[in-house]
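User: I'm writing a short methods note and want a consistent example. For Two-component system, OmpR family, bacitracin resistance response regulator BceR, I'll paste the sequence; you return only the structure tokens, no commentary, since I'll be parsing the reply automatically.
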Amino acid sequence: MFKILLIEDDMTLFEEVKQRLSQWSYEVIGISDFNNVIQEYSIHKPDLVIIDIQLPKFDGFHWCRMIRAHSNVPIIFLSSRDHPTDMVMSMQLGADDFVQKPFHFDVLIAKIQAVLRRVYNYNTEQHTELKTWCGTTVDYMKNTVSSNTASIELTKNEMFILKILIERKNEIVSREELIKSLWDDERFVSDNTLTVNVNRLRKKLEDLDIGQYIETKVGQGYIAKEKDNLHD
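Assistant:
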């Protein structure tokens, strides 16, 4: 389930959008203190931000700048202002899209889905969120790996690595291939960074007693194995 932070001070509109988006299985959260938007953003760590331009204290442009200083999370602006410079400004600040108020809800949904597909390679018509591996459930959407007794949370980079290895289970995936895939996704820039992230991933998996199922093949790459063929 994708988490959406809706930065909107019109509570009637906020509740309406939240209710409609929940029907599409999106989790929508709001802002309790408009003086501390960036702090609440950091706490919630949303997958998408929808932000109004006219807000108490500071406008949406200010908070967009602040968020962009910390993250490349996708941002969609909502605005009742119709001046072309508002749209230009939002794009210059790094927003992904702009929706004019009043808006048709189907338009908002279409824009949200388009941004999520583009940023997270998410297919709204057919996608597999859950995968079973080594007796655990891997949730690609929530970035979690869970057993019957515990659960760990991975970063998007760690889950990206794990997903590639699981989808090609029992097959050696070369370091070069992993780096190329991750480079294309603009997440990694060096061989050393890959090593650090694989080691971090393996250490987290050790909390579920499955760290040993990600094997390093010296001079070749990495391989994800199942419990019944660990020593093949």
